[in-house]
Amino acid sequence: MNEMIRAEGLVKRYKDVTALAGLDLVVPQGTVLGLLGPNGAGKTTAVRILTTLLVPDEGTVTVAGIDALTDPEGVRHRIGLSGQYAAVDEQLTGFENLDMIGRLYRLGRQPSRKRARDLLERFDLSDAGDRPVKTYSGGMRRRLDLAGALVAEPDVLFLDEPTTGLDPRSRSEMWQILRELVQRGSTLLLTTQYLEEADLLADDIVVIDHGRSIAHGTADELKAELGGERVEVVVADAADLATARGILAGIAIADVHVETHTRLLTAPVSGGADDLMRTLREFDANGIRISDVGLRRPTLDDVFLTLTGHVAEPEPAAADDAGPTGGDAAAAASPLVATSTDSTPEGAR
Predict the structure, then answer these.
(1) Stretch 114-133: mean pLDDT, rounded?
(2) With contact defined as beta carbons under 8 Å apart, do 144 and 94 qualify?
(3) Orientation angle between helical segments 94-104 and 138-149, nearest 10 degrees
(4) What are the beta bridge partners of residue 36?
(5) What is the mean pLDDT of the chain?
(6) 93 pairs with which residues across the strands?
(7) Do residues 131 and 140 touch, judged by C-beta distance below 8 A?
């Protein structure tokens, strides 16, 4: 299987902060790589380097067989990018946004117009295609932004937090669109904080922290590495959390995780149903009332928690990585095609 993305030893430093510290990535053709990590892990910096918006201090990058450092313009002709924030012009209509991108790619007047209409229909935006984008909902803008990344029918698509801020219905619709793209042969690299998203879409997952890969495998492989099952208990009274944690600590095979605001305790166990029954008996003996209890297999949330030390959280309003947020952030959001041959282009799509 051909490799559509290969990055080796990527390093990027900002003053006293190292955003990437030797990151390696490989994405075969027609697959989806999910790039996971806590805020500040280096995800967005990696995407900016892979899409030619940043030049690494060290390392090599090839995309669709093209060296991104020596031929960034050649890479731009083969990729699409949808950043963390919808890069659309609110004063233009949806059709005008897509037509403009087609003209910038020099598709020609008629092909650009036809491509714009086809994409509006594909993304269920035909009825709103001639309305100004400022009248669109957040989900509609996100779909339009993704449509813009597909105007030139790229071989490789980079999606940085593609469903952040969307309601559950819009997120589900976006997942369906992405599945269809992969079925048609597209290669995707996506960063996400929604572990359900990675579980559903990614063929392969790389978890990064402090600019390095700390785990790599399929969702099932990463879960299997944790082993065992989880006893989950919701206590009725928050005052019992400390006692409940002490009981579970004597049963669990690793640290007990406590969510104070939901009164939820999660304990990895090796004895399955026997450990669940032991938990119930000891809670009853100590007079601890339970609102809910269950036994389940590990999830990607458990993987993330074990590897990084905390649960995944949505990104804040600012970019997730240490580093510049001015020109580079603007470039990542720009819908314009970079035509400069300089190694640090001002924009790409």
Answers:
(1) 94
(2) yes
(3) 20
(4) 207
(5) 85
(6) 132
(7) no
Q: Which residue has the tokens 């990151």?
A: 23
Least confident piece of the model among 72-86, 108-122, 302-316: 302-316
Q: What is the dihedral of CA 336, 338, 339, 340, to 10 degrees?
A: 140
Using an 8 Å Cβ cutoff, are 96 and 134 in contact? no
Q: How far is CA 314 from the centre of its chain?
A: 10
The Cα 23–Cα 62 span in angstroms is 14
Mean pLDDT of 315-337: 37
Q: What is the pLDDT of residue 336?
A: 36
Q: Which residue has the higher pLDDT, 109 or 178?
A: 109
- The tens digit of pLDDT for each residue in 22-77 reads 999 999 999 999 999 888 889 999 999 999 999 999 999 999 999 999 999 999 99
50 is written with which tokens? Answer: 């892979």
Identity of residue 310: H
> For residue 262, what pLDDT band results from cuts at 50, 70 and 90?
very high
- The whole-number average pLDDT for the span 174-196 is 87
Q: Residue 344, Cα to own-chain centre: how many angstroms? A: 24
- Write the CA distances from 175 to 38, 170, 180, 198, integer angstroms: 22, 9, 9, 10
* Token pair 């809910």 in the structure block, residue: 292
Residue 107 DSSP symbol: -
| Structural contact between residues 177 and 139, judged by C-beta atoms closer than 8 angstroms | no
Q: For the whole model, what pTM was predicted?
A: 0.73
- In which order are the strands placed within the sheet that holds 187-191? 79-82, 156-160, 187-191, 32-36, 204-209, 212-217
> How many whole angstroms separate alpha carbon 50 and alpha carbon 158?
9
Structural domains in the chain, sorted by start:
3-223+313-333 (3.40.50.300), 228-297 (3.30.70.100)
100 φ/ψ sector (left φ>0, alpha ψ -120 to 50, else beta): alpha
Compute and round to an integer the Cα radius of gyration of the chain: 23
Are 209 and 308 in contact by the 8 Å Cβ rule? The answer is yes
Q: Supply the pLDDT for residue 309.
A: 65
CA distance 69 to 52: 8
